Amino acid sequence: MPNLEHPAYPAAALLHLESLVPCRESQVSLLLSIFGERQQFSVPSIFIYGHTSSGKTYVLQTLLNTLQLPHVFVNCVEYFTSRLLLEEILIQLQSCSSETELTSHVSCENFNDFIRLLKQAIVSRELQDQTLYIVLDRAEQLREMEANILPAFLRLQELTDSNVTVVLLSEIVWELFRPNVGCFDPLTLYFPDYSIGHLQKILSQNHPPEYTADFYAAYINILLGVFYMVCRDLKELRHLAALNFSKYCEPVVRGEANERDTRKLWKNIEPHLKKAMQTVYLREISSSQWERLQHDGGEPGQLKGLSAHTHVELPYYSKFLLIAAYIASYNPVRTDKRFFLKHHGKIRKTNFLKKHEKTSNHLLGPKPFPLDRLLAILYSIVDNRIAPTANIFSQITSLVTLQLLSMVGQNDQLDGPRYKCTVSLDFIRAIAR
């Protein structure tokens, strides 16, 4: 018996929708009851929240596309300013009902223009008798825009006097959205995390055609037994399942075991799953590199430059600060004028290296340096001019917090703080690229 039933939609479409959204039938049923029929007025705004990879975006896209409801779907991270966001909504609305006409650029300076153009688009596309759904994914970005954007979207149905429903998708709760001034509260709907049984059911649907469903379900059960305590992300688990399945099948391919020899299959894949535990979420190596390591029997750390620090993302000036800190830690002070001044004068040749054994500074380790030397090198290696603002000093503090720099001594020293760079040369090379 189908779980999804609604008199306004064909039973075949609902049955197909149910097959596309496993373990989310209750949420879809609730959304259908909120949406109502096409010509009925729906609630002005809906706020859907839940942790990452809980199916919010996928379920709503699948629901709107399968039932062919008129909608606009915009990611607020991609369209990060109010003007880009409003113009994208209007552009998608232009193209949603006329596939033959070329979509022209729409200029929208403010929300008043948006309301006027939206009403015109609804009339021109003959959507007066249907509910138009405007879905804003990653809606937490709206808090970074002008103060009137979020309250205006929540009352868009009232402002346009049209059958429009705004759906906000976010990973944070509504209490972190609510402005200080009063605004219209949306209808909230929570998407819970997938349970281990839900993950087992969803991941088992992707079994390869050359193997039986029971064989692949047993593999998923083993995978979840290892990773479920540290990873609940459906996308990550699906990636891990696809990455390690070939290793699980090796004894069957070689003829050493059949599909029911669970013990032999577990012994074969156990060490490889333990290696994969080191790369959950980090993406230290690509899928091709991981498959090559499995084939060669190596360790993940054997590949050069695969440290998690190599792929860390830093702000623009923090990268230059870290490069400047590395130079200050490993270059002697006397070389600064030679390296960073265009007219440094004549260089004297001394017998210093003859008297003292020439030793690599990398073997001696990083040396402490003062803050003013760090900033002087920073100003030399950055092309454009930088003002010594609080933003620069806060990024230095962040680098210390991330343990990429270490502070030597105390903050209350009269001559100012001194720092050391704690990262390796490979890390600095990756940052410099």
TrEMBL record:
| GO BP annotations, alphabetical order | DNA replication initiation
Q: Does the keyword Aminoacyl-tRNA synthetase belong to this entry?
A: no
Domain (ORC5 lid): residue spans on this chain: 216-283
Can the keyword Repeat be found in this entry's annotation? no
InterPro entries, sorted: AAA_16, ORC5, ORC5_C, ORC5_lid, P-loop_NTPase
- Keywords on this record? ATP-binding, DNA replication, Nucleotide-binding, Nucleus
Q: Which SUPFAM superfamilies match?
A: P-loop containing nucleoside triphosphate hydrolases
Q: What is the top-level taxon of the source organism? A: Eukaryota
Q: Name one Pfam family in it.
A: AAA_16
The GO terms this record gives for MF are: ATP binding; DNA replication origin binding
Q: Name one GO cellular component term.
A: nuclear origin of replication recognition complex
Q: Which residues form the Origin recognition complex subunit 5 C-terminal domain?
A: 314-433
Q: Describe the location of the Orc1-like AAA ATPase domain by residue ranges.
A: 21-167
Q: What is the first-listed, main subcellular location in coarse terms?
A: nucleus
Q: Where in the cell is it found?
A: Nucleus
Which family would the database say this protein is a member of? Belongs to the ORC5 family.
Q: How does it assemble?
A: Component of ORC, a complex composed of at least 6 subunits: ORC1, ORC2, ORC3, ORC4, ORC5 and ORC6. ORC is regulated in a cell-cycle dependent manner. It is sequentially assembled at the exit from anaphase of mitosis and disassembled as cells enter S phase.
Chain's role? Component of the origin recognition complex (ORC) that binds origins of replication. DNA-binding is ATP-dependent. The specific DNA sequences that define origins of replication have not been identified yet. ORC is required to assemble the pre-replication complex necessary to initiate DNA replication.
Q: What is this protein called?
A: Origin recognition complex subunit 5
Please report the organism this UniProt entry assigns to the protein: Smithornis capensis
